[in-house]
Amino acid sequence: MIYVGSILLPITLLVIYPQHCDAVCGYESCPETKPNMVNIHLVPHSHDDVGWLKTADQSYYGYKNNIHHAGVQYILDTVVMELIRDPKRRFIQVETYFFAKWWREQSETMRQIVTKLVNEGRFEFTGGGWSMNDEAAVNYQGVIDQFTVGLKFLNETFGACARPRVGWQIDTFGHSREQAAIFAQMGYDGQFFSRMDHNDKDKRLESLSMEMIWDASESLSSDVNLFTGMLYNFYSDTPGFCFDVLCTDDPIIDGKSYDNNVESRVDDFISYAATVSKHYLTNHIMIPMGGDFQYEDAKVNYKNMDKLIKYLNARQANGSKYNIFYSTPSCYLSALHQSLQTWPNKTQDFFPYAHEPNSFWTGYYTSRPTQKRFERDGNHMLQTAKQLSVFAGHSSEQQKEDLNYLRQIMGVMQHHDAITGTERQAVSNDYDRLMYDAIIGAANSARDALRVLTNLPEGEFESCLQLNISECAFTKDGADNVVVTLFNPLAHNSTQYVRVPVKEESYKVTDEKGDEVASEIVPVPWQVLALAHRANDTQHELIFKATLNKIASYYIEKIDKTENKKSHMTERVEDSDTVVQNSLIKLVIDKKSGRLKTVEMNGVTENIEQNFGVYKTRASCAYTFRQEGDIEVVQDAVGFTVYDGASVKEVHQQVNEWISQVIRIYEGVNRVEFEWLIGPIPIVDNVGMEIVTNFRSGISSNGVFYTDSNGRELMRREKDKREDFDSDLSHQPISGNFYPVTSRIALQDNEKRLVLLNDRAQGGASLANGQLEMLLHRRLMFNDGGGVGEALNEEQYGKGLIARGKLFLVLNSIKKGNTLAERLAEKELHLPFYKFFSKGSSGSTTAIPIPHSITDFNDFPKSVHLLTLEPFTDDEILLRVENFLDHIEGKVVSFNIRQIFDSLGGVEIRETTLDGNLPLSQMKRFKFPAKASGSLPPTVVEYSTVEYQPLQADKLQEGSEFIVTLNPMQIRTFIIKREL
Fold first, then answer.
1. pTM given for the model
2. Is residue 854 part of a domain?
């Protein structure tokens, strides 16, 4: 009967509860505060990882609680029940992934109840992304996409009352400036987090600077500045006041019980609140009440919090200056905004994070390198499938479902225990499964699109997901009569080299006009052929150069002649250095060591030596990098072979038994490619290893280097230094100097600049002048203390995991505009041509694009990137464009998108915030004055709106209404409504 009653209760309450009331959501729904008192904003919340110790599904359903007690469905069930009981109670929901899963299972009655709670501001969405994304290893495109998915679901489900106004990044392991800029561009008023370097936090506690104004961009205007607050303790409960069923703290016992502890419990809480309030500038403090997967039996939590509120506030009658109430982060922020305070400034970021002197969380920048690459592959397919869906006008439910599933799984992969590699192995395996299934589904959608967009309506358009090890099932039995269809996700025409795994045969490649394209055969390195899990039908790769706008196809056929089809092989010569060069680049390989010695390109010559090295460790874990001594450079003489082709020249190196590499230069491509293969990393005496590669030059960098912020602006770094505090580097001087690198790392002096670009997130450093070091792979034996409960000891086929990846080197002179090439390379490497394979038909040997079916973006200025083109609703398209140059290299650019609007069948267009879900004309953000600006405290609350007139037009208006202007680093987002 109790169970039946619990089900009937919400239905009954819905009947007796007013269906229409004057209650409002947002800031207007916030509880009243009291002047001249310490206002304690009590924030009930549950932090629910989208996979960590258990898979996301296991955590939702409450399965395998012997591993970790987590059941999100029960959290939401019981929280809603408890919110109904008392209109003063509140709760914040963060991870949209879990809420959406729960929502789909609810009855219409329950949906009405939750909608009412949302509309009254009592069930509040905070953060609002599909997951709580990491901030170190993510690319900005993935972050924007996952917020677009999460906020779109909330908007379509509830409307404006569900839109979050505050970021809630409480569990990420360090914080990027770009994340703050993204929040600001989505219209958020602020963000809060709870992890900060312990030295930084100690100083901020003392200087009352736990809350600040973050200058989130050097290039964008001050309108992307973001109020940022650090929680006093952590995101978990006040020490001693965890009322959850997962905790053992004392409940509040009132009444005539012999164990009545009201007085002591309230005394303790007031004492804690007094301590907290000493470290903040206003008479408001925020105290979170929750933690990992708490509130599964929410009655326990709320009953005790009710008593705490009741008895603490009762003391006001006797002169107490403490006022406590249920609140939310947004209501707390609103109170700070109304305080008319000025705030300290912050300009750099919060990397690296350390919770103690011996624990810099810099290992996760690289942890699980193959999964980090797989996430990039998923993004590559997602951007490709989204654009193709727009061009093909996909409308079937299956096509929309396939695309949306990959959107959601990519949102899962941005989670701070997914892309970081800080999850358990079983969860990592599940992420791989989800990614694979989602990519295959989206590949089916892409295939359907290409069948419409080309003259091959029956084309297979297969994707090959193992090209990183030079394997493709479509060509393993032969590449005769094969059509390679290429898709370019970028805005502008691009020329790139294409590699296709083939047998050792002779082939001819022709383009869509039937003209032969120069090609050649290069052998796959024997170290790749030796991989236990690789089928060795194809031991060579066919290489040719392709140029295309959006879609182009090339036809491969087997031929009998063999001349000029193989690159020339040169064995190592002991008595002289080996020179490998083309028209743009000259490399010198040292005759004794077999290693890179000199690079000449862009009119610059520099001695650059590359080494591989090992940091041995007994204490590193998935999160932290703890070296136990200096680097041990691999001293073995490197054996190598040179393959000297007309289009590509390769140096195949064997560094030691488990490290090999290909150094590669292409004719006409102004960068050097290093394709490394590492593993299985040996384990001796239970000692783990961190594997790095180091590039040493004579550039006088004076300890200064630069790393990207999530693939956007560069951050200035200086060895052993932080922006606002002195970091304790006494225990870990090496790991404490590593920073996240998601796209590039650079150093320079007054004459030369050295840059490394990478193909996945990694940790990078400059530990000595002129040196760049990248952490490539890790195998560890330490069972970490961060809660995972197992070592990061990845294995495959019973042996240590083998990883393969690429770095790209650019050497240039210091001239204004020279970093343009780096930024163009970033885009090309992040979103290269996507390859699809088909058999040639009898009627046509290639897949020719159908004229006028694909929109042309080549009129964009060269610095403008097509960041997003995707179906948004059944009759709407989201278009997102970006000026990717910064304020130093770039300038304001303007262009007209009327032709694009028309070609997409546009009827109306409106500009939105970055996420696509709020008209930009409606964006109104809190303005917080910074102390550093020298301005006086405001006398009234201030707001900021967009500085220009948002674009809004329809097809009847003049073309001049469709001009888009982009400042350096600016992103603008549009929704185009079109005729169905």
1. 0.96
2. no
